[in-house]
Design a protein that fits this description.
Helix content is 58%, strand content 4%. By secondary structure, it is mostly helical. The strands form 2 sheets. Strands 2-1-6 form a 3-stranded antiparallel β-sheet. A hairpin with a 5-residue loop joins strand 1 (350-352) and strand 2. Bound molecules: zinc ion.
Length: 392
């Protein structure tokens, strides 16, 4: 973490420099433009009058030209200085992070065409998910790997709706929610109601002359009356304050910007659920997991080397220890029997033995010997009937 902060600190400095550089160069360029325009007007009025250039005006022209040269030089030298602070970020990354991650990665893991295709396909899926379809298309062409992009359609639709929401246009999201009403109800989702509610609120923020329109729109709440009665009462109550402005009333919170942020988040969550997509792309999950796992793996490697037991970790497609990636990365709701190496099912459920070890029922039946069971792990002897099925 300290290392990240170290790099972030340098990055912050660069960003500040960018901002101040942008502001100062814009200011100087505007000043220059103003003075050149003034000069041009003066010159053209001289030309119209047919008067020859006065020495004072000639001097002014020379001065302005010098000023232009100086400003351009200053802008260029400031730009050069920025370059040095950008390169300091690179040095900070090198200083703070160990670049030797190859030690814990199988050699040639990305060499085969098939694996490259998988990698590019994951990158493209990520780009589509991030709303960067043009970058993804470009990558598809440049990689020349002929990647199947049939997965892109739902992402394009999601991003179109999200972009509209960012521009505070609720229509595409409402159309989507209405056409998926049945599925959303099955998910117990309040998305459609919240979209109607937000539309109603945006009508109210238009002022008293929108009152009739808002009242007509309130009919849309009718199908949600049973589940959202209290919320509907609150928004209808806000109508009383419309003449004096909702922003000066106890209902001012209805107009908060956060409403728009949270509706975007809820839409992403529910739509991904319905379309069977993950909210985060597999690439970002893989990257986040790698960030947690990598330091642990590097430490293990250092310990293995120190104790000179190099043969311990020879199969790099298997991890030498279990790595806890935190709650966010727990996905496995299935159980694979460690003895028979097959996924358990309703007919063959996982069984917790008295000692705490878990194996499948099929494995348990196979291991019974003379009415007794010896746990294949600890190995505690026990009565097979004491094992309890567990449900994940
Ligand atoms: Zn056991």
């Amino acid at each position: 973490m300290e290392r990240c902060v170290g790099v972030e600190w340098e990055l912050e400095k660069v960003l500040q420099r960018f901002v101040s550089y942008g502001e100062s160069s814009e200011r100087s360029l505007e000043e220059l433009l103003a003075s050149v325009t003034e000069l041009r007007e003066e010159l053209s009025s001289h030309a119209q009058k047919g008067v020859p250039l006065s020495p004072a005006l000639a001097l002014m022209m020379t001065q302005r030209c010098r000023k232009i040269r100086e400003t351009v030089q200053k802008v260029a030298s400031d730009h050069k200085e920025m370059h040095s602070s950008v390169s300091r970020v690179g040095k900070a990354i090198d200083r703070n992070f160990d670049p030797d991650v190859c030690a814990v990665v199988s050699e040639g893991v990305w060499e085969s065409r098939n694996k490259q295709q998988l990698l590019y396909s994951a990158i493209m899926e990520h780009l589509f998910q991030q709303g960067l379809p043009t970058v993804a298309e470009e990558l598809s062409q440049e990689s020349a790997l002929n990647i199947d992009t049939s997965f892109k359609q739902p992402f394009l639709e999601l991003n179109r709706i999200l972009e509209a929401l960012q521009k505070r246009d609720l229509r595409p999201a409402l159309e989507w929610a209405i056409s998926n009403r049945q599925h959303l109800q099955e998910l117990n989702s309040s998305l459609e109601f919240r979209l109607h509610r937000l539309h109603f609120i945006s009508l109210l923020s238009g002022g008293p002359h929108k009152q009739m329109q808002a009242l007509t729109y309130a009919r849309q709440f009718q199908p949600f009356a049973a589940h959202h009665q209290q919320e509907i009462q609150v928004i209808m109550g806000s109508l009383a304050y419309l003449p004096h402005g909702i922003e000066n009333s106890p209902y001012a919170h209805l107009l908060a910007v956060e409403q728009w942020i949270s509706i975007g988040e809820q839409f992403t969550r529910d739509a991904c659920h319905l379309l069977g997509l993950s909210i985060e792309s597999p690439l970002s999950v893989g990257f986040a997991s790698g960030c947690v796992a990598l330091p642990v793996l590097l430490n293990i490697k250092a310990v293995i080397e120190q104790r000179q037991c190099a043969g311990v970790w020879s199969h790099k497609d298997e991890l030498p220890i279990e790595i806890d990636l935190g709650k966010k990365c727990r996905y496995h709701s299935v159980f694979a029997c460690p003895i028979l190496r097959q996924q358990t099912s309703d007919a063959n459920p996982p069984i917790k033995l008295v000692c705490g070890h878990v194996i499948s029922r099929d494995a348990l039946n196979k291991l019974i010997n003379g009415g007794k069971l010896k746990c294949p792990y600890c190995p505690m002897e026990q009565n097979p009937a004491d094992g309890k099925p567990i449900i994940f």
